[in-house]
UniProtKB/TrEMBL annotation:
This is DUF4240 domain-containing protein. It comes from the Bacteria. InterPro entries: DUF4240. Residues 7-93 form the DUF4240 domain. It comes from Capnocytophaga periodontitidis.
Length: 123
């Protein structure tokens, strides 16, 4: 798979998970360890794009805040992610309350640990 195909594969999984951590867990449980690791790599890479200027100009000034917001944006799906890339001023200042329940980051690592007794090693 080339990078474009991998990214499309990733976004399809995110769309199918529908911002539901348990649904994503069920989807990822069917995957090989290599595919779980690939999913985690793409998630982290996409989130990292939002963890620098100009995005951080609009996000709560804490490392956890920046990570939570970037993970939440990726979890919302491709359309929202691309909207934020084009309009950094629209990125949320922080993620609080129930919104944090829709952050899909970390599920791949949990599934890898549960299924293969090993973590992805990608953070």
């Amino acid at each position: 798979m080339n990078n474009t195909d991998k990214e499309q594969w990733f976004w399809n999984i995110i769309a199918n998970a529908k911002e539901d951590r348990e649904l994503l867990r069920t989807i990822l449980m069917e995957f090989s360890k290599d595919n779980i690791v690939a999913f985690q790599e793409i998630f982290v890479d996409l989130a990292a794009e939002l963890q620098c200027e100009p995005f951080t100009d609009y996000i709560e000034e804490s490392e956890d805040g920046v990570e939570d917001v970037s993970h939440w944006v990726v979890s919302k799906g491709r359309t929202y992610y691309e909207k934020i890339l084009k309009h950094p001023e629209l990125i949320p200042y922080s993620i609080k309350g129930n919104d944090s329940d829709t952050i899909l980051y970390g599920i791949a690592d949990e599934v890898c640990l549960d299924k293969y007794n090993d973590v992805t090693g990608i953070y």
